[in-house]
Amino acid sequence: MFSTEFLDLPPLASAGGTVTLPGSKSISNRVLLLAALSGGTTTVHDLLDSDDTRVMLDALQALGCGVRRNGAQVQIDGLDGRLGVPGAKLFLGNAGTAMRPLTAALAVLGGDFELSGVPRMHERPIGDLVDALRQLGCRIDYLGNEGYPPLRLGRPALALDAPIRVRGDVSSQFLTALLMALPLAAMHGSPATGTGASSPPPEGAPRDIVIEVVGELISKPYIEITLKLLARFGIDVQREGWQRFTIPAGARYRSPGRIHVEADASSASYFIALGALAARTSGSNGLKIQGVGADSIQGDIRFIDAARLMGAQVTGGPNWLEVSRGAWPLKAIDLDCNHIPDAAMTLAVMALYADGTSTLRNIASWRVKETDRLAAMAAELRKLGATVEEGADFLRVTPPASVSHWKAAAVHTYDDHRVAMCFSLAAFNPAGLPVRVLDPKCVGKTFPDYFEALFSVTAPQPDAVPVLCIDGPTASGKGTLAAAVAERLGYHLLDSGALYRLSGLAARRAGLEPEATHADAIAALARKLPVRFTADHRVLLAGEDVTDLIRSEQAGMDASRVSALPAVRTALVALQHSCRTLPGLVADGRDMGTVIFPGARLKVYLTASAAHRAERRHKQLISKGFSTTMESLRADLEARDARDSSRSVAPLKPAQDALLLDNSDLTVDQSVDLVLSWWQDKQPFGAVPHD
Ligand SMILES: Nc1ncnc2c1ncn2[C@@H]1O[C@H](COP(=O)(O)OP(=O)(O)O)[C@@H](O)[C@H]1O
Ligand SMILES: Nc1ccn([C@@H]2O[C@H](COP(=O)(O)OP(=O)(O)O)[C@@H](O)[C@H]2O)c(=O)n1
């Protein structure tokens, strides 16, 4: 996951290959709650690992459920309708799929619970659910604003004789919450008085429980998911149209033992759109999406129909889809999107590539999601150059009038995963502009590795992957600076010195003195270096961890000597070029800006006085347990400077267009901030990274 302040997406050109999607958020959290309410143990396969599911798992654990994780598999020891650790205070982040069903289940069960979340959660209405629950005798108090979390739940005196009425026109999550909670009452009958949290509700006469929906029910497909999952857990709800739902008397949750979570159909929408709007990467067979098929139980899968209307070609099987570009430009649409509220956001971005004005209707529910999505989408689409009309419940998008009307935008994401994922698709703009996504980690809500998945199936426009070079003499702080800058930008890091150090080590191990007579043999070793850089910054040579070994002064000297051999330098070129991958690269060395990446967008030539460098290296080596003296170090580094600067091939010198930075009197943080400000100046997003 990218946890950077922003992520710059270079202009993208094509898509191809296979992407495997994470499990659905809606299904994951419903399954977790149902497993918790059932008796026995449920093994959940392919559970989504995200902020919202973690929130739910933590809450269930706090309520006394056994939770065991084993990769994408989780075992839940259910409590057979007897959930409840009295006095539990549950923090539910911004997870509506946890807040609503838990409110209902805990309010029906009774106990002293407090449910709260992040500030945005306290702006998301819950009054209609609370009204419905109060109607049936639940005791619920608002701890903040009337109609919104946080909530305190007390002990109910359930009255289930009359049908329970719930509004269906604000969010279908209210009805889902009631459908999942009320079998608790049907299971035990309706107690006349409140029940203790830790003791089972007393038995009464089991009776049918009826829910009536007031107003037109929105997001019906989500209710279908709820009903299908309830059936898997032994509860067969009878439905009359979308107005009346009956939970039969004596209904009882039964664990299915094991259950698989489908991949998220809303997440699939970004890749369906990608296949529809990107050219096919040469040599690939189009874009395959693994984990969800056209017969999915999730309503958002109907996004396929909308994408087809816009021109996408979609085929598929039970657990996969294949998408490619059909009509191009895409065809403008005018569509009622009530049945695909989440995925419809993706259509708004596809509309940027359409042949006219598109209108998305009946999407008022966007206003009460993670953010006011109608306002958010309108504002961010406008930043890209689109003309947008925002109505109470519709959005009308006209693409930029011509290529030159597209604008490079820093997209604000409002802590809303879907806004971030949608706008990544703007990187296919015909103007070849990059797109900045602010706060990219918000995708953690449902799809933590979204951007990694996107990069794995997309190809950039030629030469579009940005490179930032940092060259300079030994111990000037290149490695430190490069690593910090790469981390702040979310870019890959090329420590080219390590490649020369590894080549020197490989030569030594092969019994070759690092000198000209062995140049070809060492070059042959360098060309096939069995090197691997791990995510935790270790360097492996043929599987052996040599991270510390290659940092000795001896290894540095050997590196300097092999690096003077032209054949070795040539042998390492392809490996260095192969590191330039999405979303970008920070390259550290001696000739990054002069030879390897001459077209790099920013080149920094980093120096510090010999005295400062010797002192820094001394501290560094002593802290790693190597014994050395300042005098020998200074002599070594001056010898290395001389050799690096005087060699015939790729001598150490600043590139003509490099910016010089003498950091003798700067701290590491000051150097990092300065280089990032230079980088920022090269971007088309304006001076400040925020809007
Ligand atoms: N601006 C700086 N001020 C003080 N010390 C620094 C600075 N930059 C780097 N250092 C320290 O100097 C040492 C050598 O830095 P390193 O990044 O390994 O240099 P290089 O890659 O250029 O050989 C490290 O211990 C590092 O923490
Ligand atoms: N791009 C590069 C990187 C390193 N090198 C050589 O490899 C040696 C080790 O590189 P390094 O960056 O790890 O060295 P230090 O700067 O840390 O001493 C240097 O002394 C250079 O001679 C090079 O020639 N070209």
List the helices and strands and how they pair.
Layout: E1 6-9, E2 12-15, E3 17-20, H1 25-37, E4 41-45, H2 51-62, E5 66-70, E6 73-77, E7 89-91, H3 96-109, E8 113-116, H4 127-135, E9 140-142, E10 151-153, E11 164-167, H5 172-181, H6 183-188, E12 209-214, H7 220-232, E13 238-240, E14 244-247, E15 258-260, H8 265-277, E16 279-280, E17 287-290, H9 303-310, E18 313-317, E19 320-324, E20 334-336, H10 344-350, E21 358-361, H11 373-383, E22 387-390, E23 395-398, E24 410-411, H12 417-424, E25 435-438, H13 450-456, E26 458-460, E27 467-471, H14 478-489, E28 492-495, H15 496-509, H16 519-527, E29 531-533, E30 539-541, E31 544-545, H17 553-563, H18 566-571, H19 573-577, E32 585-589, H20 592-596, E33 602-607, H21 610-623, H22 630-646, E34 659-662, H23 668-681
Parallel strand pairs: 2-16, 3-17, 4-15, 7-8, 11-12, 20-21, 24-25, 27-32, 27-33, 28-32, 33-34
Antiparallel strand pairs: 1-25, 2-26, 4-6, 5-6, 8-10, 9-10, 12-14, 13-14, 17-19, 18-19, 21-23, 22-23, 29-30, 30-31
Helix pairs in contact: 1-2, 1-3, 1-7, 3-5, 5-7, 8-9, 10-12, 14-23, 15-16, 15-17, 17-22, 21-22
The structure holds adenosine-5'-diphosphate (ADP) and cytidine-5'-diphosphate.
Adenosine-5'-diphosphate is lined by residues 474-480, 616-617, 620, 663, 666-668, 671.
Keywords: Amino-acid biosynthesis, Aromatic amino acid biosynthesis, ATP-binding, Cytoplasm, Kinase, Nucleotide-binding, Transferase
Binding site for ATP: 472-480
Binding site for 3-phosphoshikimate: 25-26, 30, 171-173, 219, 342, 369
